[in-house]
Amino acid sequence: MSSKSPEPSGKLSSSVKPRHVTMISLGGTIGAGLFIGIAEPLTQAGPLGTILAYFAAGLVMLGTMMCLGELATSFPHSGSFQYYAYKFFPSPLLSYTIGWMYWLSWVFALAAGLVAAGIVSHEMWPNIPIWLYCGGYLAVLTLV
């Protein structure tokens, strides 16, 4: 028999370790889109090709973020990164286009996330159409 009491002591304790926080942040960063969209690359390139492709894309993103970090420290500004295009190129058209393209990328990312959530929900409850799930999740996000 154990000498510990099975009843809670009434005190809250922090049992989240740094590795738990790392895994939560990794899962939040990857998102559902990776798990939904990984099937096609796996069938075309295989496991090694998929890993190499994701590694190469990660290196490109790392380089981009390091360059943006350098620009942000060299030329501090309270605005988006499209300011740097405005600062270094004579035409404001490039900055304007970058701003709209960035906005569109987030709109498409939101749509992809909604579709992924709809597909996962449709697997659990197949009687409800996917578009209804997407609309419901969009309504909840809008209300929040």
Describe this structure in words.
The chain has 144 residues and is an all-alpha fold. 76% of the residues lie in helices and 0% in strands. The protein is built from 5 helices and no strands. It has helices at 18-37, 39-74, 82-88, 92-124, 130-143. Helix 4 (92-124) packs across helix 5. The longest helix is centred in the middle third of the chain and has 36 residues, at 39-74. The model has no long low-confidence stretch (mean pLDDT 84).
Draw up the topology in text.
Elements: H1 18-37, H2 39-74, H3 82-88, H4 92-124, H5 130-143
Helix pairs in contact: 1-4, 3-4, 4-5
Outline:
The chain has helices at 18-37, 39-74, 82-88, 92-124, 130-143.
